[in-house]
Amino acid sequence: MSKLPKNHTFIDLSDYGRPIARHIANLLKKTSYTPIDVTIGFIIAGLISVACILLGYLWAAAFFLILKSILDAADGELARVKKTPSYTGRYLDSIADILLNALIILAIWHTTETSFILCSFSFLGIQLQGTLYNYYYVILRNTVNGDTTSRIFEDKTPIALKGEKQKNVNLLFAIYKMLYGVFDKIIYTLDANAHKGKTLPKLFMSAISIFGLGFQLLIISVLLITGYKEYIISFFLWYSLMLLVFIGIRKLL
């Protein structure tokens, strides 16, 4: 199942793992495994990739980064095929993503001669990239009656959906706001009226999908296995300049 109606789907360069993710979801559809179980699976894959980076097993690190990306898509797919959407899963997924991103960048910093300051700015850039892409994607989904588990403005604790506990939603939302609040505010400030504009074109969404987490992990994986690990942090610093380009194009649209 897609997050968007068929006539609004676009080529998502960060979502290359979706076909395998759907297959995994279909295999698990009639089992007792839940989307949260799959989320735990991608957390484990992410932690293994961090360990592999630290130990110098770069091909293995790349493999587990891609596996993490696939499982990251599979938890949402499983929630849709089982018809069990939840804010618990949505926020747990996002919290796991940002913490794993931090660990991955720290592992790269620890095994290279890059300064910690550059490492920190690189991490901030990666998060702003992903936030901008998600911002536009969620706007599109809400505009065309797509999946609405994610909200354009995450400013209030949502009411728990069927099958989940409100206290879990409250806790995870509070952690989510603590970790993502500053990135959301920066992006909203840079393009506060994006939700008031026209439906974003498919070509634009395909272009900005290079900021999606899946594509970011793919870039890291390629640089790891091609011997360019030392350039990963500086690459994402320069890559972040594209933020202003995409925001400018969106405003022109």
Q: Which key phrases capture this entry?
A:
253 residues; mainly alpha; Four Helix Bundle (Hemerythrin (Met), subunit A); 10 helices; 0% strand
Structure description:
The chain has 253 residues and is an all-alpha fold. The protein has one domain: CDP-alcohol phosphotransferase transmembrane (TM) domain (Four Helix Bundle (Hemerythrin (Met), subunit A)), CATH 1.20.120. Helix content is 68%, strand content 0%. It contains 10 helices and no strands. It has helices at residues 18-28, 35-55, 58-81, 87-110, 116-143, 166-190, 202-208, 213-225, 232-239, 242-252. The longest helix has 28 residues, at 116-143. The radius of gyration is 18 Å and the shape is globular. The model has no long low-confidence stretch (mean pLDDT 93).
* Uncertain segments: none
- The helix content, as a percent range, equals 55-70%
Number of strands: 0
> What's the main sheet like?
none
**Count of structural domains:** 1
CATH topology description:
Four Helix Bundle (Hemerythrin (Met), subunit A)
Based on helices, strands and strand pairing, what is the structural class? mainly alpha
Write the layout of secondary structure elements.
Blueprint: H1 18-28, H2 35-55, H3 58-81, H4 87-110, H5 116-143, H6 166-190, H7 202-208, H8 213-225, H9 232-239, H10 242-252
Helix pairs in contact: 1-3, 2-3, 2-4, 3-8, 4-5, 4-6, 5-6, 5-9
